[in-house]
Structure formats: C-alpha cells, structure tokens
Predict the structure.
Amino acid sequence: MLERLKRIDVKEGWRKAIHIPTAILAPIVVFLFGYAGAEVLCISALAYIFVTGYFEKRHNIKMPVSSEAFEIASRGKELEFPLAQTLFLIAVLIIAIFLPFSLTFAALGVLGFGDGAAALGGMMFGDHKIPYNRKKSVEGSLIGTIVGFIGAILLGWAGIWFDYTNTAKPLFGLIPQLNGTWMPILILIFGAYLLVLLWIEIFEFFAKKRYDRRAAFTGISLSLLIGLALFGIFLAFGMDTPIFAEALKSIVAAKAAKLPFVYLVGTISGMIAESAAGKTDNLLVPLVSAGTMVGVLLVV
C-alpha cells in the first residue's frame, strides 16, 4: 500500500484534494449567506481570478494566498491562467442559477468527490488505461464512480432539505431583511471582506512573506464590487432563487424515492465525461451530471 501511495504526484494530489472541501463548502455557504449571497461570493471569486491574473501578469505582483494556491493546484500552462478554477466556478454558476439544490449539490458531489477520487485512485491503482484516453484508467474511473455516487447522495440529501427551506434570506431569516431590502446580505459580505483582509495580514505575519497590500486590497475590493454589481442585475430581474427551482420542485417531491437512482445515473454519466475529458473535466463533470439528472428525473 505504501508503494502505491508513492505513485501519487504531490501537485496533482493537492489539486484533487481541493475538490472535496470545495464541494462540501457549497451547502455551508448557502446556509450562511442564502442563495443570492452565495451567488455573489461565487461571482466575486470568479472576478478575483481575473483581477489576480491581471496584477500578476501585467505588473508581476504576487497576491497573498491565492497566488500560491494557484501555483500548487495548477498544471503546466495553467500557471499562466488558473483555467481549472475558472471552469469550476463557471460550472457551479450555471447549474446553481438554473437547477434546484437537490440536483445542484448532487452534481457538485460528483465533481468534488468523484473527480478527486478518480484521479487519486487512478494514480494508485490505475494499471489498465482507458483506450480512448491513455491518461485515465479503468480503476480510477470505477473508484470515482463509487465515491462520486456517495458524494452525490450525501450532498443531494442536503440539497433536498434546502429545496424546502427559504434560502432567499441569509441564515434562513434569522437576520431579517430590513424593510424588504438586501442590507443584511451586504453586511455579511462586508464582514467576509474584513475577514479576508485580516487573513491577508495573518498570512503575511506567519509566512514572513511581503506582498503588495495595495494590490491585494484593490483586487479584493474590485472583485466584490463586480460581484455586487452583477448581483444587483440578478435582483433587478428577480433572480433570487434558481430559475427552474419551482418548476422542478413538485417533480422532485413526487419522485424523492427515486432520487438515489437519478443521482447514480448522473454520477455514471459525469464520470464517463471525466474519463473522456482533458483539461475541461471541471466544467464537463457537473454539467453532464446535472443535465443527466434532470433528464432522468423527467423520464422516470
């Protein structure tokens, strides 16, 4: 077993290990910030990738935490641009905007647990390569399918609960929306912003590395402003819940007993997409999984 553990590439191991906590964080973020607040953070994170890339490439300025995290988790040319992280956030946004939580979280479970397990399992036990993609193995795909299905079940259960809970309000209304405004969400976002700034200072102190604070603060501020601006557009069009959430809610409720089967089919299709994909698996796995789940849910 020790010899098989030595087969794991350290960089790839770190890269895939990031997937699992990222998937687990999704329901936690929705719980804390509500659906709309989670969308803001996701969009802000996407904006921060582009802002960080601008400072690094245009002005050769390293950003605290994110620069080193990108270097650890990026492959080859991805060091020039964090493609995997960008595709992951785009996929999350697409399925979160359209689908109810029971399907969104399950799809993220397939990616977070399945894709990560497939890569790690493939490095350890992948003795039989897939004919159409020699970089992937049969053993890795099987391990990913099993672990991904378990992840889909766990996060899918959380999603079912979210589907029947008011997620438009942060902390499920424990912090009331003042006179129908979105002020509590703005307060939470500002609090998160202060925590991130504090984290930068702590990171610098303990790591004893000097970064350009102005660039870091500017990058975070711009990202949040971009996120809040797009969030305002979302609210203007009434997008404070997933677009198809209400349309699919009754179907999900009527077929709740069949959801494990739906998740299984979505997991298998997602892992087949992962085994066929190259650099785009972070985008394809959740999209194919979610799309398959919707199709099966409507048919069964």
